[in-house]
Design brief:
alpha/beta; 11 helices; TIM Barrel; 8-stranded parallel barrel
Length: 380
């Protein structure tokens, strides 16, 4: 199991949802604190989100924070089409070098700032970018002439530590998004849903990948509210939204470039199906979605309940969790104290076998590399 935290670079940190606090705004100082606290608390990775109108730049932040971390991976969100592709490959390879091989990449396929493109062509563009970006980061020359990319180019001299492309994490729920994911991503990310809903998504994506001779890993992007007792956790959830004006919440949801996506509509459906307190099933609270586009639900409960819910998702195929909570520094500490010690996590760091096969914890070969001479202590 891989358990990650959320870097809140996109101005998404609150004491009370919908009530901005300048001290919690996206800044180098605040987001650096969240990232370093996540590493101290033992998280395996941290998502650095990207939003043009919201917060500081994720790629610049990743380069700045890289030398300050020692163990944790960075999951850097990059929008396909936003930068010149060869330059993006150089930037990612350089940051991976700064991290000593600890970079992972969250592929984003939303509209560019100021543009509006239909879903199907936008995902065709994303797929072309993913293929060419992977080729360059694999250290291979590109001779690609597609609808959106027309490029004949040798790979940059800058390369990743492994010489191979970092893992691509990717989420999306439209038909075009799912087909793109099945074709080109490594870890498919889904948003909060009932356990049965997540199981159906995993089964669907496994079948799509299998038709292409591929296998995917699966991740869940969710908020979490954990307290020593179930009653205290539910009270904290209610407190989080007790100053929320519904018009302000709707404005916050509408700011996102993916505010009208299939996935966002599903989060709204879950809110409609919830009980009077906002719970759509045991320990799954949809109140956060009242003031947030994207992942709109939280796992809520005492430590045993939160772990049990995560294990329920794990049984249906989830092995990577990207968690967040409000305020992010405080909830990071609570999850580090109450949840992480109860989980068997952190074993997805690449392991190198004597013959040079790089494998993950499930025994699935990722790629072949020369035997690593710089294994970290936590890898054994």
């Amino acid at each position: 199991m891989e358990v990650s935290w959320f870097g809140a670079l996109c101005d998404d940190d609150y004491q009370y949802l919908g009530v901005p606090d300048p001290a919690l705004g996206s800044s180098w100082e605040h987001c650096r604190g969240i990232t370093l606290e996540a590493e101290r608390n033992g998280f395996d990775n941290i998502l650095l989100p990207s939003g043009y109108t919201l917060g500081i730049d994720a790629t610049a932040f990743a380069a700045g924070i890289a030398p300050l971390t020692e163990r944790m991976r960075l999951l850097l969100a990059v929008r396909m089409g936003e930068l010149w592709l060869p330059q993006l490959a150089r930037q990612l390879a350089t940051i991976d070098r700064m991290l000593d091989g600890r970079l992972t990449v969250n592929i984003i396929s939303s509209d560019m700032p100021g543009e509006s493109m239909e879903s199907a062509p936008r995902y065709r563009r994303t797929l072309e970018w993913m293929h060419v970006l992977r080729t360059l980061l694999d250290g291979q020359p590109v001779d690609f002439h597609g609808e959106f990319v027309d490029l004949t180019l040798d790979p940059p001299r800058a390369s990743t530590v492994s010489g191979r492309c970092p893992l691509f994490y990717f989420g999306g729920f439209s038909e075009a998004a799912k087909e793109t994911a099945a074709e080109a991503c490594d870890v498919f990310l889904t948003w909060p849903d009932t356990v049965a809903g997540v199981a159906a998504t995993v089964a669907d994506m496994r079948a799509r990948a299998a038709r292409r001779g591929r296998r995917l890993r699966f991740g869940l992007r969710s908020h979490v509210i954990v307290r020593e007792t179930s009653e205290a956790a539910r009270a904290a959830a209610a407190e989080l939204v007790n100053r929320l004006d519904d018009e302000v919440g709707a404005a916050i949801r509408g700011r996102s470039l993916d505010a009208a996506s299939v996935g966002v509509r599903r989060q709204a459906e879950l809110r409609d199906l919830s009980d009077d307190d906002g719970y759509v099933e045991a320990n799954l609270w949809t109140g956060i979605g009242r003031a947030r586009s994207g992942a709109g639900a939280a796992i809520v409960g005492d430590p045993d309940e939160v772990v049990a819910k995560m294990q329920a998702y794990r049984r249906v195929g989830i092995d990577a969790f990207i968690l967040s909570g409000y305020p992010h520094l405080d909830e990071c500490d609570r999850v580090g104290r109450y949840v992480l010690p109860r989980l068997d996590h952190g074993h997805l760091a690449p392991l190198v076998q004597p013959e040079g096969r790089l494998i993950d914890a499930s025994g699935v070969a990722i790629y072949k590399v020369p035997v690593c001479k710089r294994l970290r202590k936590d890898c054994g």
